[in-house]
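Email to the structure team, subject: MerR family transcriptional regulator model.

Hi all, the expression group asked for a predicted structure before they design truncation constructs. Nothing fancy, just the tokens so they can compare against earlier work. One-line instruction: predict MerR family transcriptional regulator, return tokens.
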Amino acid sequence: MFVAQDPAVRHAALRRHRDALAQRIAQAQASLALIEQALDCSHEDIAQCPHFRAGLAERARTTAGDA
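Reply from the structure team: attached below.
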């Protein structure tokens, strides 16, 4: 990535890497939020919690668009 002699090529590669990293960070943050929601849930079985289930459904919708 850094060995490209042409600055435009190097910048394009850096932008691609930045964009991919930003996407992975956003996905990790969404996963973390879901885990925190599960940890904060007062239901004995989080699978029965409507808030957690809504969070799972939202996560499935947003990740389906990434595929």
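The helical segments are 7-40, 50-64. The mean pLDDT is 88. Ping us if the truncation boundaries need rechecking.
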